[in-house]
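Action item from last meeting closed. Structure (492 res):
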């Protein structure tokens, strides 16, 4: 008899003895579990009443309603591959992947097909689908898989790379369309459900809350007004739906912050449904997106700037420069003005003003309330059309704004130096020749090569005038007008 068998037999004998003693010699109540034919104790399982139905506390009814509105998108395009492998020595390790002719040059393919996976949302029964531009960018073939597994070809009706929105059209009708919510009513702390096709595994639903609104200046898109959420969003969710607890579309999932991991870290961004809807309307109505143009360089108001401007509160945005003969200049806007509201609505930051103007139509007249030297005035400006990307570069906002002057060296600007800086020979001011990096002013936003033209709105033509203006203003309250490559901005 093996050791294991003996141990089992001894335990069985001891158990039998104990049971016998308990039954015959002790007045102790015992419950003996029933034993199945195989010698195992029968399991007592508690089973829920089938009539109870599904849980009433979850989001299952909303998900069931919305899932048919969300689709999976597969796109492909042919891209030209640089012939970087020609002339490379033959290597068996690489040949097992690229073929036995690897390294010979003549067999290297010049083109390849690139695949992309994403998601989309059906927003009309006629088959219009909203998704991200980067999901279908340059695609020659777009396929959409519905929740019922049907696979349909889709036509790209139009795209807007500046907001990363694209509009597709499915052939057919009577498609299940989602209800578009008013994204301006979204509040931080609201429930948020993200629906899409992460990593291509199939339709997936994740839950979180709205973490923030109006996220901008992230460098993801040209025009940013993101809804931030911690609902897990992963690659493949791009173009999918962000819905509220009523199943209404409030955003199009578009980006994540992953710190190089490529996966969700609880910081995802969605394009507001109102913005996506406006872009879609313009694409359907005009075939493209046209944007209003004000013609100013705007800066946020920092505490240092507010102090220099004599403002008690950090309100509005500062006009750092005005485009010559542009709409703003024609309407009376001047450099140094503080724009406080647009059409009666307060402006909180430069990103808000930029986005609001961009979604207006050229030719539309807006009313700006500005503060100029402490005096309030209303200006009517007729918007122009946003110029091309090259011309628009002059209208990029500048966010450089911190304390300055100590540790800064300046010299008189002459005509030759002005030309070297790409400025007219007649440009007046003092040029920054050096900034001590160990000084607090080394991180002020002022750069070597900047031309200082004003101190507290007083023009300076040379170093003597510059020092005199500084002495009058006081170094801590000096507001500098700087010319950088032909564009002016304020630094305090």
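Sequence:
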């Amino acid at each position: 008899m093996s050791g294991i068998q003996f141990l089992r037999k001894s335990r069985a004998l001891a158990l039998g003895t104990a049971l016998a003693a308990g039954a015959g010699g002790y007045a102790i109540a015992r419950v003996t579990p029933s034993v199945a034919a195989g010698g195992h104790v029968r399991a007592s399982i508690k089973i829920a009443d089938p009539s109870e139905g599904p849980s009433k506390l979850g989001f299952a009814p909303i998900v069931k309603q919305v899932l048919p509105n969300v689709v999976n998108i597969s796109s492909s395009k042919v891209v030209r591959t640089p012939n970087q492998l020609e002339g490379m020595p033959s290597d068996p390790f690489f040949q097992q992947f690229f073929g036995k002719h690897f390294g010979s040059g003549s067999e290297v393919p010049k083109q390849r097909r690139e695949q992309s996976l994403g998601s989309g949302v059906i927003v009309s029964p006629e088959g219009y689908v909203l998704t991200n531009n980067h999901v279908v960018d340059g695609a020659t073939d777009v396929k959409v898989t519905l929740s019922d597994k049907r696979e349909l070809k889709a036509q790209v009706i139009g795209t807007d790379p500046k907001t990363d929105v694209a509009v597709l059209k499915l052939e057919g009708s009577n498609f299940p369309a989602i209800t578009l919510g008013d994204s301006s009513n979204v509040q931080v702390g609201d429930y948020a459900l993200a629906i899409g096709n992460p990593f291509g595994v199939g339709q997936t639903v994740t839950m979180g809350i709205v973490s923030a609104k109006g996220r901008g200046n992230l460098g993801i898109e040209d025009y940013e007004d993101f809804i931030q959420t911690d609902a897990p969003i992963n690659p493949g969710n791009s173009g999918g739906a962000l819905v509220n607890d009523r199943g209404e579309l409030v955003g199009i999932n578009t980006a994540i912050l992953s710190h190089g991991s490529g996966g969700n870290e609880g910081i995802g961004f969605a394009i507001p449904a109102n913005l996506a809807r406006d872009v879609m309307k313009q694409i359907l109505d005009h075939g493209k997106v046209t944007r209003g143009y004000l013609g100013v360089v705007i800066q946020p108001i920092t505490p240092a700037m507010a102090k220099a401007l004599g403002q008690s509160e950090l309100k509005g945005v500062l006009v750092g420069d005005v485009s010559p003969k542009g709409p703003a200049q024609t309407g009376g806007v001047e450099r140094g003005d503080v724009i406080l509201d647009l059409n009666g609505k307060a402006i909180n930051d430069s990103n808000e003003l930029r986005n609001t103007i961009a979604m207006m139509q050229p030719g539309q007249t807006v009313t700006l309330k500005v503060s100029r030297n402490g005096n309030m005035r209303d200006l009517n400006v007729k918007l122009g059309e946003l110029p091309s990307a090259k011309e628009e570069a002059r209208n990029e906002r500048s966010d450089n704004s911190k304390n300055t002057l100590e540790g800064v060296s300046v010299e008189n600007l002459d005509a030759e130096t002005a030309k070297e800086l790409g400025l007219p020979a007649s440009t007046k001011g003092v040029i920054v020749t050096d900034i001590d990096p160990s000084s607090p002013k080394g991180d002020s936003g002022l750069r070597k090569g900047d031309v200082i033209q004003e101190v507290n709105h007083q023009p300076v033509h040379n170093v003597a005038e510059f020092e005199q203006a500084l002495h009058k203003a006081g170094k801590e309250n000096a507001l500098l007008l700087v010319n950088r490559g032909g564009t002016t901005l304020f630094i305090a």
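Note appended to the action item: The chain has eleven helices and 26 strands.
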